[in-house]
Write a structure and sequence with these properties.
The complex is a heterodimer of chains A (483) and B (95).
Chain A (H helix, E strand, L loop, with lengths): L1 H9 L5 H19 L2 E4 L1 H16 L11 E5 L26 H9 L2 E6 L19 E2 L2 E5 L5 H8 L5 E6 L5 H7 L2 E4 L19 E6 L2 H11 L29 E5 H4 L4 H16 L3 E5 L7 H16 L27 H14 L2 H14 L5 H24 L2 E5 L15 H5 L6 H6 L3 E11 L2 E10 L5 H13 L1
Helix pairs in contact in A: 2-3, 7-16, 10-12, 10-13
Chain B lengths: L3 H11 L5 H18 L32 H9 L5 E2 L2 E2 L6
Antiparallel strand pairs in B: 1-2
Classes of the chains: A alpha/beta (483), B mainly alpha (95).
């Protein structure tokens, strides 16, 4: 889609200003019902679009994504724009700088339409945990868009943005992409700088694109990746144009299907998945059953590591340094020696009122897992099991080029269906979290639909690749998509 | 099941204010999830090194130089601070 729009802009069939206005019209028409956006950045977008049109008028070359409207998840900072992470505690926060990915996108001339809704601080699998609103699935608005990047995904699926950026800590790009029938890419850990993204769990977080096609995802990845000294975990990588690696040929490639992921699949999802395997075979790929023996421990490992890192990362929201300060005017039972009551009450009230239930639950869990006497049993143990999970992947990738499964064990569920049961909600992430634990790249792309309540609800397939082999993985998904 | 005292202790460590009702809810929710975590007890990890982070990169350095946001930039940063005095962040008395 990006390439076609680029041609139209270049050939003068449409201007960036016209294109951008079309998207703002779409947002106005649809977004009251969908709830994808939290903040609209019209002034910024129109300036960016006008700048690109002037450049085209002067006969200058433009980049593939230049002048094309996109949306940004509201946990990524844009200079001068409100950035809430969908939390009350950042209700009034205006970012004073651009995240590295935003800096890069601005240099490419991307047009930014606005900031999109998410589960508060990206904690959730349905975008029901936003302090502001629930984002609905554009295919069936009684259902969730998925999460946590639900707003970014719904915006693309509803045609209210050409593409968007999300963040993925345990599947937050891929699971909603699967639910809404679009493409979502989580790059290798270290591929994209997270500087300026509000941290959730730093050893797992990655930024990635949500798009209408695999080629679009490749185009965006080329423009946001690269080492950045402001994110010490970002890895050295050459400036690749991933879109140049999409040959449409995967003959001779081996795709491994982990038996632990698919043995419990049943019904319609199983049918859709098996059909997709046939398609991969018909494209010349070999399908092999493989084993990732520690899969059953992934969810516990993930939730211990993630909540521990959450409790540490969110300690900075204290009602003193930035964001909101709240006061419930009640005296709490908490006491701490050597700390003034007034200061302690400021912390307690601000975080009690400023954070939502799920965020507090995770901070509490993480604090417990890291507290004296429990660290070895929980955090250290989980980090060791994580080594075993990574080893599973190293062994698997000796024999196969890619690992393939459904993205989620289900289609989009109804709004409210799972919100009362945190553990049930966590199980939505069962296929996606291992890619974050092992650090490998993963992509979700549509492989079929299941007719439910009169709507065709999408199912996503997930390909995982070797560390830093985005080009191979993207080509595999692309080949599937174009055939 | 975690005791009320344990929940209060964790809440104080986490700096999260809790009501009586919250304490009961956390007792239930956290205990249920911690039980689920027990699954890891089955795994033998003697001889396994923990992963610190996944890329295995070590010693990433950059020049120790600050970015000057300028007067305007400073103003933009300080606008996000709940309470300031003379251009400084105001903290409640610590002792």
């Amino acid at each position: 889609m990006i390439r076609e729009l680029h041609e139209q802009l270049k050939n003068g069939k449409i201007t960036s200003v016209q294109l951008t206005e079309q998207y703002f019209d779409a947002i106005e028409k649809k977004d009251t019902e969908i709830g994808a956006y939290l903040t609209i950045t019209k002034k910024l977008a129109m300036q960016q679009a006008q700048f690109v049109d002037d450049k085209i008028a002067r006969g200058k070359e433009i980049d593939l994504i230049e002048g094309i409207p996109c949306a940004i998840k509201d946990n990524i900072c844009i200079d001068g724009v409100r950035t809430t992470a969908a939390s009350k505690i950042l209700d009034n926060y205006i970012a004073p700088y651009d995240a590295t990915v935003i800096k890069k996108l601005k240099e490419c001339g991307a047009v930014i339409l606005g900031k999109t809704n998410l589960d508060e601080f990206a904690m959730g699998s349905s975008t029901e945990n936003s302090a502001y609103k629930v984002t609905k699935n554009p295919i069936d608005t009684a259902r969730v868009a998925g999460g946590s990047s639900g707003g970014s995904v719904a915006a693309v699926a509803a045609g209210s943005a050409v593409w968007s950026l999300g963040t993925d800590t345990g599947g937050s790009i891929r699971q909603p992409a699967s639910f809404c029938g679009v493409v979502g890419l989580k790059p290798t850990y270290g591929r994209v700088s997270r500087s300026g993204a509000i941290a959730m769990a730093s050893s797992l977080d990655q930024i990635g694109p949500i798009t209408n096609s695999v080629e679009d995802a490749a185009i965006i990845l080329s423009r946001i990746s690269g080492q950045d000294l402001l994110d010490a975990t970002s890895a050295k990588s050459s400036d690749k144009k991933y879109e140049d690696y999409l040959t449409g040929d995967i003959s001779g490639k081996t795709i491994g299907v982990p038996k632990e992921y698919v043995e419990s699949l049943e019904g319609e999802i199983k049918n859709v998945f098996e059909k997709s395997l046939e398609k991969f075979k018909s494209l010349g790929a070999k399908i092999e059953t493989i084993s990732l023996p520690h899969s059953e421990y992934a969810l516990s490992t993930y939730y211990i590591i993630m909540t521990s890192e959450v409790s540490s990362n969110l300690a900075k929201f204290d009602g003193i340094k930035l964001g909101m300060r709240f006061d419930d005017e009640l005296d709490s039972a908490a006491k701490e020696n050597g700390l003034s009551k007034k200061l302690l009450e400021t912390y307690l009230d601000t975080r009690k009122i400023g954070f939502g239930d799920e965020v507090k639950r995770r901070i509490m869990l993480g604090t417990y897992a890291l507290s004296a006497g429990y660290y070895d049993a929980y955090y250290l143990k989980a980090q060791k099991v994580r080594t075993l999970i990574r080893r599973d992947f190293e062994n698997a990738f000796k024999a196969v080029d890619f690992i393939y499964s459904p993205t989620a064990p289900e289609v989009s569920f109804k709004v409210g269906e799972k919100s009362a049961d945190p553990l049930k909600m966590y199980l939505s992430d069962i296929y996606t979290i291992t890619a974050n634990l092992a650090g490998v790249p993963a992509i979700s792309f549509p492989i079929g639909t299941i007719s439910t309540d009169g709507n065709d609800l999408p199912i996503g397939g997930q390909l995982m690749g070797k560390w830093f082999d985005e080009e191979g993985m993207l080509n595999c998904a692309h080949t599937y998509e174009i055939n | 099941m975690l005791s009320k005292e344990e929940i209060l202790h964790i809440a104080t460590l986490a700096r999260i204010g809790v009501s009586e009702k919250d304490v009961e809810k956390y007792q239930h929710d956290l205990s249920e999830i911690l039980d689920y975590f027990k699954k890891l007890d089955e795994v033998d990890v003697s001889d396994v090194q923990p992963i610190g982070h996944i890329t295995g990169m070590q010693n990433t350095f950059r020049t120790d130089k600050q970015d000057d946001f300028g007067e305007l930039g400073k103003e933009e940063i300080m606008k996000n601070v709940p309470e300031t005095k003379d251009g400084y962040i105001k903290v409640k008395s610590v002792l």
